[in-house]
Amino acid sequence: MAAPTGIKSPTRARIAARTLRTDRWWLYPTFTALVLLAFVVYATYRAFVGEHYFAEPYLTPFYSPCVTTECVEGSSHLGTWVGDWWPLSPAVLILVIPLSLRLTCYYYRKAYYRSFWMSPPACAVGEPHRRYTGETRFPLILQNIHRYALYLALAYNVLLTYDAVMAFKSPEGEWGHMGLGTLILVVNAVLLGLYSLSCHSCRHIIGGRLRNFSKHPVRYRAWGMVSVLNGRHAQLAWASLVWVAFTDFYIWMVASGTWSDPRFF
User: Fold this and answer.
1) How far is Cα 150 from Cα 206, in angstroms, rounded to an integer?
2) Residue 87 to residue 62: CA distance in whole angstroms
3) Tens digits of per-residue pLDDT, 148-189?
4) Contact at 8 Å (CB) between 127 and 118?
5) Domain total for the chain?
6) Global confidence as pTM
7) In angstroms, rounded to a whole number, what is the distance separating the alpha carbons of residues 228 and 208?
8) What transmembrane ranges does the database entry give (predicted)?
9) Residue 14 binned pLDDT confidence (cut-offs 50, 70, 90)
């Protein structure tokens, strides 16, 4: 039988207690688990319900772009190029892109490894697992698609920005109008864009392989700006997650007739 690794390795100091910390270290992983679980439950319901996702001119980001023949009239800004062969809600086809980015995101990996797998639950707290294999086996080896998920997410951000621009129409299709939903969609596009740009992989793509910054002044300046965003990556991850759910909820309420959308002009 192979010797245990990690904190149970025979080369580590023997400490009977799981941790010597006396603070409430369990609050952060517990809160993280509750918020992530709530988002998963809500997003899953909204993705499969297949209704109340479009209220002219607002299209919820959960269903954007809506490209199947099941999309309600007016919601398919890019046309319907997926036929009746798709058996599920239009959102299921789209949410794979943002989901792949968040699942493989370095920050979210830390968040759900600690909160759900307790690997480890907090700094200086022992984990219950006897062995540590890292991300070298299935399914965690799929975390290596993160950079490619970022490329898709950046394209997805362009589509959400387009939706925000389209929100400056009136319900009758006239340009130059703005409602509360417009503001919500603009903030959503900005937050999701900043979250993607603050990604560690994005920072590495821009300047990670440069040997001499002085020979690449433009990329160095871009790397510096992205590095500033990268320092706020965790905050942007949470803000964009909560806001995209709120954006969907607001459009759901408007589309169902529960709320009216205040118009500014």
Assistant:
1) 13
2) 17
3) 999 999 999 999 999 999 999 998 889 999 999 999 999 999
4) yes
5) 1
6) 0.88
7) 15
8) 25-45, 85-108, 148-169, 175-197, 236-255
9) low
